[in-house]
Amino acid sequence: MRSTTGTFRSVPDRFSSTPSVSSSCSRPGQLHSLSSSTPQDKDHIVQQTDVDASGSRLAAVNLGYLVDPYAALLHAGGENDRPRRFPLINRGTYTRTTAIDELVVQFLKGVPTGQRKQIVSLGAGSDTRYWRLKERSGEWTRGLVYHEMDFPEVARKKAERVKRCGVLLKALELGENITFGHGDGDSGGNGSTTPTPSSVSLQQTCASANTVDIDQNTGNITSPDYYLHAIDIRLLKPGLPASPLPDAIETSIPTLILSECCLIYLAPAEADAILTFFTTVFKLSHPLSIVLYEPIGSDDAFGKVMVQNLATRGIVLQTLKKYSTLSRQKERLRMLGFKGGQAAGDVDWIWENWVGANEKKRLARLEMLDEVEEWKLLARHYCVVWGWKNGEGENVGWEGWKTVAEQRVED
């Protein structure tokens, strides 16, 4: 196994397509070793991590780990970038993506067909999940409204890419039916070939261009079932005289919050305030759920090296020490209002227990992974955590989660 002071001199790529920390697989110069003294400098470093994260997703897609025709279209690194990642990073990207996808689908299937529901993605960056869900277009997507939030600087770049890409823009204008040339559009591990934009066919059903408003100056996008909100989520605090929550987000329908390595950059008090804000705004009578993806394990040797090397590059994972274990992550959700239930699994455990034998064989054929011990070390330092609060005795939205295996966590 390689030394943690060798390959992993900095935090490994966070297996993701939303704002991430840098990895040893990043392109030289992508993130600079600078000591930022101003809040604006620190925010800029966090914003730039989206390039590495979307590059990791695109690398996994290009090798066949995932099917995602939108990864290249929304890649923050530009059209000419052809990112590559080590095999263990690609495996991590696959595991993290498919695990969260499964939890999202189970949430949607738990809501009665046609009932309005919404997903609110914090720090969404170049994420493609809205387009991938719309492509799958099952009965369980009926009535779904998808919201994304990110810094105005990040939102403006995404809004620009959406506006100039016909495939992305047309999807916003459509009703609920969308078909692709590669089959049913399932985005997880089926071995399908990812289509290029020219091979994608869209079936328009009921909408026109005037149903979509893209403001490139602010970064806001408004459409029938997708919203991009240019907002600093640190403004979401409980107890303010006027709620900073965008008007389009409804507080009386089943809702799933996604935070994929987003809150980790905030001070613990800021991160806790955001979650408390949501559990407060969504009254007890209204169901609310959350899925978190974050690094853990800052207390062991690997974690300490990870934190130290990131600090030299101006990146601080501020909540890592407070929520450094699975049990602490679960308790975090319970204490902040998700009292209906909490569950968790690290990425290594999810790989072993959620990915079937045939799928593992398919992935093994894509490229050789001979760093098994290193993979386990890395994967055990990332986790997926999910929790919910019930609405007046209802379990809408997470009945399916009760069938999902969870890792036993020692207190």
How would you characterize this protein structure?
With 411 residues, the protein is α/β, with parallel strands linked by helices. The protein has a domain at 93-298 and 316-357 and 382-403: Vaccinia Virus protein VP39 (Rossmann fold, 3-Layer(aba) Sandwich). The protein is 35% helix and 13% strand. It has helices at 39-63, 71-74, 87-110, 129-136, 152-164, 166-173, 268-281, 301-311, 326-335, 347-354, 357-366, 372-379; strands at residues 117-122, 144-150, 213-215, 220-222, 226-230, 255-260, 288-295, 341-346, 382-389. Strands 3-4-5-2-1-6-7-9-8 form a nine-stranded mixed beta sheet, sandwiched between helices. Helix 3 (87-110) crosses helix 10 (347-354). The two termini are 30 Å apart. InterPro entries: LCMT1, Ppm1/Ppm2/Tcmp, SAM-dependent_MTases_sf. This is Leucine carboxyl methyltransferase 1. GO terms for molecular function: protein C-terminal leucine carboxyl O-methyltransferase activity. It is an enzyme of class 2 (transferase).
Question: CATH homologous superfamily name of the domain at 93-298 and 316-357 and 382-403?
Answer: Vaccinia Virus protein VP39
The first-level CATH class of the domain at 93-298 and 316-357 and 382-403 is given as: Alpha Beta
The protein's oligomeric status is single chain
- What about the largest sheet? 9 strands, mixed
> What strand line-up does the widest sheet have?
3-4-5-2-1-6-7-9-8
User: Which percent range fits the helix content?
Assistant: 25-40%
Could you tell me the CATH topology label of the domain at 93-298 and 316-357 and 382-403: Rossmann fold
The low-confidence runs, each spanning 5 or more residues with pLDDT under 50, are: 1-36, 177-209
CATH architecture annotation name of the domain at 93-298 and 316-357 and 382-403: 3-Layer(aba) Sandwich
- Sheet-strand content, in percent, reads 5-15%
Average pLDDT level: 81
Spell out the helices and strands N to C. Answer: HHHEHEHHEEEEHEHHEHHHE
The structure class reads alpha/beta
The number of strands is 9
Tell me the overall shape: globular
Radius of gyration: 20 Å
Q: Number of helix segments?
A: 12
Distance between the termini: 30 Å
Binding site for S-adenosyl-L-methionine: 96, 123, 232-233, 260
Organism: Terfezia boudieri ATCC MYA-4762
Keywords: Methyltransferase, S-adenosyl-L-methionine, Transferase
GO biological process, one term: methylation
